[in-house]
Amino acid sequence: MFDACVRAWLVILALVELPGIVTLLAFDAALDGFASNLANQRAEKHVWAFMLALLAAARVLGAVGWQHRAVRYHCAVVHVLEACCLGCEYVMHGSGGDSVVHAIIHANAVLFVVWAAACKREKAE
After folding, report:
1. Would 10 disulfide with which of 16, 59, 74, 93, CB 3.0-4.6 Å?
2. Model pTM?
């Protein structure tokens, strides 16, 4: 049950990133939130969209390859790095991120570390 809930949460999180990616790339939207410290230029928008796409890809990989220990640890590491980087931008550099989103980012890091640690060792094939 825990695995199913985490996998559903990963899919939801991946889907949440899609509008941001599309608006940055297709509609040239302004950078805001945790990216508000970046210059509002095309290159920065593309790098931010790429980062969101990599984050979404890690989440999809976690949802699809959930039974593999390495995939779970990869997902956990990605989310710990996200928490460290975006948390630093929010706390130390005053980015325009939301405090609730900041808390969710850190809760995700903890959740995925616990999820990875709970994975039983895979049997050799």
Report:
1. 59
2. 0.88
